Amino acid sequence: MFLIGFLYLASQSVKKIIEINPYMLGTMAGGAADCQFWHRNLGIKCRLHELANKRRISVSGASKLLANMLYSYRGMGLSVGTMIAGWDETGPGLYYVDNEGGRLKGDRFSVGSGSPYAYGVLDSGYKFDMSVEEASELARRSIYHATFRDGASGGVASVYHVGPNGWTKLSGDDVGELHYHYYPVPPAIAEQVMEEAAAE
Amino acid sequence: MTKQHANWSPYDNNGGTCVAIAGSDYCVIAADTRMSTGYSILTRDYSKIHKLADKAVLSSSGFQADVKALQKVLKSRHLVYQHQHNKQMSCPAMAQLLSNTLYFKRFFPYYAFNVLGGLDEQGKGCVFTYDAVGSYEKVGYSAQGSGSTLIMPFLDNQLKSPSPLLLPAQDAITPLSEPEAVDLVKTVFASATERDIYTGDKLEIMILKADGIRTEVMELRKD
């Protein structure tokens, strides 16, 4: 994850997956402060909902709270491109919400400057009845490909799983290492000879 | 007809650089003492380091008037916290307070580039780095200000903090001892002073440990 200020990489380790509560996650794209603040604010509103209604808020409700909040700041320069992912009584829920006040329900989204590259990999590999392992590997590869081509993406690719009992972090891999994992470099002849010599 | 733009800005940049390094049981916060405006020096003896709580020290570069205002807000909020909770704020709590304080002026920001350093509840060093509107993260080390682009790559090279996002998790605390960290900070500022016109005069270093705070001052180039 990259944070850019004036073409300078401010950080390679910004948390772009924000833990709103133990069963809901939000992703961050756009302005870091805007996303951090409003996701935390959403977490507070979700908790207040739980206390007022004695039940967890739905993903639909949480995403709508955020979308309405962002709509009221429309045109004032907030920059938020986020996905709200969670699990409620109706099953898994995924919503895309942005600073224009847009809100979309969907099975898969890709958000941010590297999103076109990620969509390419994501759409070609997606099936609704994928297993968790297949889906997490697809997500990891999509992120990797986005970091490969987009200058503003990189750092660590984190993968989380959201299930009926909440979210768990599945993996966090440095994309530089992922590159050689997906595209290993065959050792050059000279290296092979040296390895054999060392083994003798 | 093109829109008329203001020829007066509410902001100014007083320059300067701030650095913080977290250790296993200490935290080093350092800043130069030069305050400038444009190509002039206002003073060679301005402290950019502010103790907010026993275990939380803020260092800010940028527009010092905004920094002073920010510091006043944080100090008063800390006082209220002490009255209400009968204890000092911890560094992570102060970190969140600073983030919210910055964000509440999202549409007319504090022109302040902050590094918060201190000890967490377990006594381990922690450093939090911010942008002007309040986004923050906990890191092992950070530099902010005019010399930050010169200093950060060197700190990355020397301290090689593994990302906190990696799984299995790896500790972000530097393996350096306290004297080594102080020495590194002195080296880093001496180099930044050479190439950054806004950094120089004196270096003020605050070392936070469980038993208290120690301050060191080192002379830097004055040109």
UniProtKB/TrEMBL annotation, chain A:
Statement: the UniProt record of this protein carries the keyword Transit peptide: no
Compartments, record wording: Nucleus
CDD domains referenced in this protein's UniProt entry, alphabetically: proteasome_beta_type_5
EC number(s) reported in the record: 3.4.25.1
Entry keyword set: Cytoplasm, Hydrolase, Nucleus, Protease, Proteasome, Threonine protease, Zymogen
One GO CC term, this protein: nucleus
A GO molecular-function annotation: threonine-type endopeptidase activity
Any GO BP annotation: proteolysis involved in protein catabolic process
Top-level division of the source organism's lineage: Eukaryota
Enzyme class: hydrolase
Principal cellular location given in the protein's record: nucleus
Enzymatic reactions: Cleavage of peptide bonds with very broad specificity
InterPro entries: Ntn_hydrolases_N (IPR029055), Pept_T1A_subB (IPR000243), Proteasome_sua/b (IPR001353), Proteasome_suB-type (IPR023333)
Subunit structure: Component of the 20S core complex of the 26S proteasome. The 26S proteasome is composed of a core protease (CP), known as the 20S proteasome, capped at one or both ends by the 19S regulatory particle (RP/PA700). The 20S proteasome core is composed of 28 subunits that are arranged in four stacked rings, resulting in a barrel-shaped structure. The two end rings are each formed by seven alpha subunits, and the two central rings are each formed by seven beta subunits. The catalytic chamber with the active sites is on the inside of the barrel.
Chain's role: The proteasome is a multicatalytic proteinase complex which is characterized by its ability to cleave peptides with Arg, Phe, Tyr, Leu, and Glu adjacent to the leaving group at neutral or slightly basic pH. The proteasome has an ATP-dependent proteolytic activity.
Protein name: proteasome endopeptidase complex
Species for this entry: Brassica campestris (Field mustard)
Lineage: Eukaryota, Viridiplantae, Streptophyta, Embryophyta, Tracheophyta
Automatic annotation (TrEMBL), chain B:
Record carries keyword Cell membrane: no
Family: Belongs to the peptidase T1B family.
Primary site of residence: cytoplasm
UniProt-listed PROSITE patterns: PROTEASOME_BETA_1, PROTEASOME_BETA_2
InterPro entries reported for this sequence: Ntn_hydrolases_N (IPR029055), Proteasome_bsu_CS (IPR016050), Proteasome_sua/b (IPR001353), Proteasome_suB-type (IPR023333)
Organism domain of life: Eukaryota
Pfam family, one: Proteasome
Task of the protein: Component of the proteasome, a multicatalytic proteinase complex which is characterized by its ability to cleave peptides with Arg, Phe, Tyr, Leu, and Glu adjacent to the leaving group at neutral or slightly basic pH. The proteasome has an ATP-dependent proteolytic activity. Non-catalytic component of the proteasome, a multicatalytic proteinase complex which is characterized by its ability to cleave peptides with Arg, Phe, Tyr, Leu, and Glu adjacent to the leaving group at neutral or slightly basic pH. The proteasome has an ATP-dependent proteolytic activity.
Cellular component, GO, one term: cytosol
UniProt keyword list: Cytoplasm, Nucleus, Proteasome
Localization per Swiss-Prot or TrEMBL: Cytoplasm; Nucleus
GO biological process assignments: proteasome-mediated ubiquitin-dependent protein catabolic process
Organism ancestry: Eukaryota, Viridiplantae, Streptophyta, Embryophyta, Tracheophyta
Assembly behavior: Component of the proteasome complex.
Name by which UniProt lists this protein: Proteasome subunit beta
